[in-house]
Amino acid sequence: MSGRPDPDDATDATLRAILVDVTGLSSVRAAALGPDSGLFGALPELDSMAVATLLGEIEERFDLTIADDEIDGSLLETFGALLAFVDAKRAA
Amino acid sequence: MIARWPCSGAGGPVDELAVAFDRKRRFRLLVVPPLFEEMNRTRRLLVETLRRLDAGGIDGFLPDLPGCNESPQRFEDQSLYAWRAAMAQAARHFAATHVLAVRGGALVFPVILPGWVLEPVKGATILRQLLRARMLAAREAGVDEDMATLLEVGRTEGLDLAGYRCGPALIAGLESARAEDEGQIEIRQSDLGGGGALWLRAEPGEDAAQADALARRIIESIAA
Q1: Is the CB of B202 less than 8 angstroms away from the CB of A46?
Q2: Which of A16, A53, A69 to mutate to test the interface with B (most CBs of B within 10 A)?
Q3: Which of A2, B20, B24, B120 allows an S-S link to B106, with CB 3.0 to 4.6 Å?
Q4: Nearest to B37 by CA among B161, B140, B137, B159
Q5: Which ipTM value was assigned to this complex?
Q6: Is a pLDDT exceeding 80 seen at residue B58?
Q7: CATH number where A23 lies
Q8: How many domains does chain A fold into?
């Protein structure tokens, strides 16, 4: 995992909120997501279209751009990996 | 409830359908839906909003975009130009006095009518999301597709995106289209009471509070 070890709380909260909006996950389930919780491949709601929506919302709400070559399997494997990625992008 | 309206169509005149609440009242709202999957995800919200407007004394019309829903036309033949022309025809047919364009609908709504745009989105943003979804699906299947190459093919031959066969004209149109604005009032998702945007939701949902808020905003400002 890359990025700072302790992601900013606001980033964490916003990312959970985006996941709720895109997947329809209850906020209880979203709050229970840990660093190792699986996303793409683990949440049935997250198909390729939903992942594209998720990435678009991340770009929109954090005002950042995700390059196509940054999107690989490991990015969306776990909540922790995605959070670290967003946190590193925001710090850059 | 379901009304027909005449549309020029790529292969000649056809009848398209619309959800209609028509009691020949003074204010008549045409709703131009979002494009692609967002149209399905917001359909309940928009029909529920029309029901509330009907109760509030406003006629409402939600036409199918040609090639979508119950349309007899092929999706492949559509372009932003064709959708724009069709929505103008629907507005004339139903004698709409106002328009509500939602998301990508803001790329094709009749700008001559006063009204509202809900969270308008650029064509390039829509296209990028569709291309990404295709790339991700291909990668899952073990095929590496490159966005730039896909786009190049799309511009000349068209492209299958998220289950929609998009013709080259639609791809080219989306690349450069920006939401039009002739003074229509912009409504943000945050104005609808704080719930999440339903067009983001992977599985379509509904939200009575959002339909209430959207209808209320229109009722309050339509006569102003």
Answers
A1: yes
A2: A53
A3: B120
A4: B161
A5: 0.85
A6: yes
A7: 1.10.1200.10
A8: 1
According to DSSP, the β-strands at B185-187 and B115-118 are: parallel
Residue A7's pLDDT band (cuts 50, 70, 90):
low
**Which residues from A are below 8 Å from B139, CB to CB?**
73
Which residue range(s) make up the domain with A60? 13-91
Asked whether B116 and B100 are in contact (CB, 8 A), the reply is: yes
Pair B96, B61: CB distance under 8 Å: yes
Asked whether residue A80 is domain-assigned, the answer is yes
Of A24, A55, A68, the CB nearest to B202: A24
Interval B18-50: pLDDT, tens: 999 999 999 999 999 999 999 999 999 999 999
Q: Of all residues in chain B, what percent carry a pLDDT higher than 70?
A: 100
Does residue A68 lie in a domain region?
yes
Tell me the shortest Cα–Cα distance from B218 to chain A, in angstroms: 25
pLDDT in tens, B85-140: 999 999 999 999 999 999 999 999 999 999 999 999 999 999 999 999 999 999 88
The C-alpha of A86 sits at a distance from chain B's nearest C-alpha, in angstroms, of 18
* Residue B207 CB partners (closer than 8 Å, separation 6+): B45, B195, B198
Q: Please indicate, yes or no, if residue A41 is contained in any of the structural domains.
A: yes
- Contact in structure between B164 and B36 (CB atoms under 8 Å): yes
Distance from CA of A40 to the nearest CA of B (A): 10
- In residues, how long is chain B? 224
Strand blocks (E) in chain B: 2-7, 14-21, 28-32, 59-63, 98-102, 115-118, 159-161, 164-166, 185-187
Q: Confirm whether A6 is domain-assigned.
A: no
CATH 3.40.50.1820 for domain B2-121+180-222, yes or no, is yes
Could you tell me the two tokens for B32? 């131009």
Question: Which residues are CB-contacts of A33 (< 8 A; sequence separation ≥ 6)?
Answer: A16, A19, A79
Q: How many beta-carbon pairs below 8 A join chains A and B? A: 55
**In whole angstroms, how large is the CA radius of gyration of chain B?**
17
